[in-house]
């Protein structure tokens, strides 16, 4: 038995995934696919894009959530950084791993206030809020100070154009063997160029569709 597969977390996640699947956002239909990709790739307009999408959950898949839990357990993570909290589904999986690892600290960043409030509610309902610090604001600022000396796992699932910037912001604290998981990494070519260059200090492979799994060597 694990925290992930028992109450209160298991039934909570079941409900949250169902809510996420049913969520809609009128704002997304107003954008053409080309405009959406342009905004996703922009380093200056990402706040506008994700502000428009505040009603969408944008969660990891059920399989990806389970994978995050497994990776955090397997590396015995005690310190985790997450870029992009949204409504907290991935955060719940990572915090569950910390609980089953014996405790730790998860710092996650989200700029949309309504999502921060809901994520806190979900983490409280899941009995995991004591392990998580949610920092509200632009992650380029919130993750720029007061981080743990060593980081065991970094999960990137916020504005795709910032993946490389966030990695470089925290990488001097990544311990040897630390894991970096990037969702939707296929739309962040500069990030992929960084982690797929051995001289940069990483080994990296595409994993589970558009997830990139890397380790700090």
From TrEMBL:
InterPro entries: SAM-dependent_MTases_sf (IPR029063), SAM_O-MeTrfase (IPR002935). Gene3D superfamilies: Vaccinia Virus protein VP39. Keywords: Methyltransferase, S-adenosyl-L-methionine, Transferase. One of its GO terms (molecular function) is O-methyltransferase activity. It comes from the Bacteria. Pfam families: Methyltransf_24. This is Methyltransferase protein. It comes from Rhizobium etli (strain ATCC 51251 / DSM 11541 / JCM 21823 / NBRC 15573 / CFN 42).
């Amino acid at each position: 038995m694990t925290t992930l597969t028992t109450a209160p977390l298991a039934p909570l996640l079941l409900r949250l995934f169902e809510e996420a699947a049913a969520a809609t956002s009128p704002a997304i239909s107003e954008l053409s696919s080309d405009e959406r990709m342009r905004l996703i790739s922009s380093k200056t307009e990402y706040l506008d894009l994700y502000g428009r999408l505040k009603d969408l959950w944008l969660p990891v898949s059920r399989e990806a959530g389970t994978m995050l839990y497994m990776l955090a357990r397997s590396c015995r993570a005690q310190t985790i950084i997450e870029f992009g909290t949204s409504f907290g589904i991935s955060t719940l999986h990572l915090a569950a791993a910390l609980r089953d690892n014996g405790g730790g600290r998860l710092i996650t960043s989200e700029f949309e206030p309504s999502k921060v409030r809901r994520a806190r509610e979900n983490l409280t309902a899941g009995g995991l809020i004591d392990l998580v610090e949610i920092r509200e604001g632009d992650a380029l600022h919130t993750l720029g100070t007061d981080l743990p000396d060593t980081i065991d796992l970094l999960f990137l699932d916020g504005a795709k154009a910032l993946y490389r910037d966030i990695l470089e912001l925290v990488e001097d604290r990544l311990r040897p063997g630390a894991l970096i998981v990037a969702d939707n990494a296929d739309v962040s070519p500069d990030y992929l160029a960084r982690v797929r260059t051995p001289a940069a200090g990483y080994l990296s492979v595409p994993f589970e569709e558009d997830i990139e799994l890397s380790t700090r060597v």
